[in-house]
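During the reporting period the student researcher (J.K.) took over the structure-prediction task from the postdoctoral fellow and processed the backlog of single-chain submissions. One of the processed entries is reproduced below for the supervisory committee.
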Amino acid sequence: MTKPLEPSDAPATWTAGWLQSARPCPSPNFGPRPEGAHIDLIVVHSISLPPGVYGGPQVEQLFTNQLDWNAHPYFEQIRGMEVSSHFFVRRNGSLLQFVDTDDRAWHAGASQWRGRGNCNDDSIGIELEGLEGERFEDAQYATLAQLCLQLAQRYPIAHIAGHEHIAPGRKQDPGAGFDWGRLQDELGWRDNCFPQETLRRNAPRD
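J.K. obtained the following structure tokens:
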């Protein structure tokens, strides 16, 4: 079992809601959170553009409204989309930030979790570079776990779920290739922080 990270292992330096260890890529796609929003949820997503293609600038371009819609046939399906997440973790573990965590990113869409709807209002969105159903890299798990701990230093994080859990039937990411058990081992967080189905179905380890 991986040794759980301790809070002292993940010191975080923030400027307002910008994490200094992340490369800033400000997105125009955000808004204010509702007054009194209780930011206690982390939502894990996966994305690659075009699907299954890694390492390029297209995700960054999408979240900053700079994507050339004519550059690939797949982009016609998402033409005009204005979306964002707070963070993006590349395959090599490098971390980008698009939206101040004190603000509302546009990552969850129609959603519901822990008895509340509109998860954009009170969640932090983290995109992993990957394809739903496929496996993720060791470096991504390391960065994701450290980021979750750093967020828990700043906000009263009590829940973490996938896009597939907060929007079932509409979204499938990060999918069966994401190892929730591994993430829980690294975080050392209690079972009730995670979707119950992830405690019964974890992706196999190598």
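The committee noted the following: The domain at 9-191 is CATH 3.40.80.10 (Lysozyme-like).
J.K. will present the remaining backlog at the next meeting.
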